[in-house]
Amino acid sequence: MTDERTVFFVSDGTGVTAETLGHSLLTQFDTVSFVPATVPFVDTADKAQKIVETVNRITLHSGLRPIIFSTTVDPEVRGILQQADAQFVDFFGSFIGELEAELHHESSHAKGKAHGMREGGGYDVRIEAMNFALNNDDGAKITDYAKADVILVGVSRSGKTPTCLYLALQYGIFAANYPLTEDDLEKRVLPRFLANQQQKLYGLTIDPARLQQIRGERRGNSRYASAKQCELEVYEAERLFKAERIPYLATTHTSIEEIAATILHERGLKRRML
Amino acid sequence: MTDERTVFFVSDGTGVTAETLGHSLLTQFDTVSFVPATVPFVDTADKAQKIVETVNRITLHSGLRPIIFSTTVDPEVRGILQQADAQFVDFFGSFIGELEAELHHESSHAKGKAHGMREGGGYDVRIEAMNFALNNDDGAKITDYAKADVILVGVSRSGKTPTCLYLALQYGIFAANYPLTEDDLEKRVLPRFLANQQQKLYGLTIDPARLQQIRGERRGNSRYASAKQCELEVYEAERLFKAERIPYLATTHTSIEEIAATILHERGLKRRML
User: Fold this and answer.
1) Residue B247 sits in the same domain as residue B145
2) Which CATH number fits the domain that encloses residue A167?
3) Contact A121, A273 (CB under 8 A)
4) What pTM did the predictor assign?
5) Chain segment A62-86, per-residue pLDDT in tens
């Protein structure tokens, strides 16, 4: 008997919420291996019935019940899923009752609304934030910094671009980024157009060995990717952050989500969408 | 008495999971207004105690108990939060027991692991996918399409770029995009470099009035943003999608999450990270 457990993330919407819930619980069982499948847009009895058939077949053949993480709202669909020979983790059903009681309101039982709140006025600001990040990437434009919520600074390939795009997509934050040049690092001062933005600056740094590896994949055997150059740039960048009192974070072992949440938290940034 | 309810998303990590789960439940109560606050990195008894004090103050002054959506794992921290005069929605505690029983394993009770799974080998592929999206945006490069998992096509400003970046960040999907030119639309054929990629193509379309509005914000009073031009381009693009049997979707009232999940689902794409 194998310890491989099939997991279904079932949703009447995109499945992102079901995946988020399921992942965060499953990561607590790091000795078990899981085979995940997402089934989005399950909004009819027929679709639910098909999942039940698949699940029951797996249970019969493997002897191990799959786990179903469900965020579906429709009572009929949930009733069908519940009958599968599986462990049914019913996100909606588990909490909606107590929330109704607390809020003295009935829930609307509307399906696929998980991203509705986010879209309420959030769509435009999100696209604007993303365009801002793209237009202000890599020091491409230094005239728009007045509009920025935050300006990430760091050496080339320290993780600035993905962080800016994530801040835009997830939080609607206007994030620019500026790559510290050799000139900046040698002079040991910030360029003048950044000096009056101190309260918006946030530094990213990285382990020199990791930086060398990342740069090497792009331009192997170059001065840019040499151990010496990477060490020097990181040393000078961190020295500059300290001298200028710019809060900073090492991205080496930190996920984009964590970097973004830390910046938001430490800089006290107000998100522009929920 | 106001109907405004304070909501806390409390986490020992970034708070993104608590927010996602909490939002999806709160959107079911569209007649209640909520005042949300996220408190990330709550990993000590002291930090939990401070939240309890804030919560109790709000309850005392407003007469309405806040709702705490918590994904914290540590039993001590959860125990403290539980004592606040609030409705405590405990995502971890509600499900971890039944999962332990089902899996015959104890959970590791490790905090802030929600994004751990995603990062397991997922970090590099995610950055690669993002770089791919940036390098292959807006038809910038047409030589890399062999490496693409999907190529979005559509008229200018139909939502291709945000969708590609979201596909990269959320799923590690290599997504390129190509803007249909006036030349393509007039000739009513796909450019040759796309013709042999049919199985990777996915079309995005948009309501012409909405397109006019979006284009107008960038270049008001231009032919590009005129009603006539927007109508013509959308008409011809949809005609081309049908003729070439390219599946397509209208982005007008659809969130980026939904567009991305639909593309994944309809094209049967395998995500490169969890």
Assistant:
1) yes
2) 3.40.50
3) yes
4) 0.87
5) 999 999 999 999 999 999 999 999 9
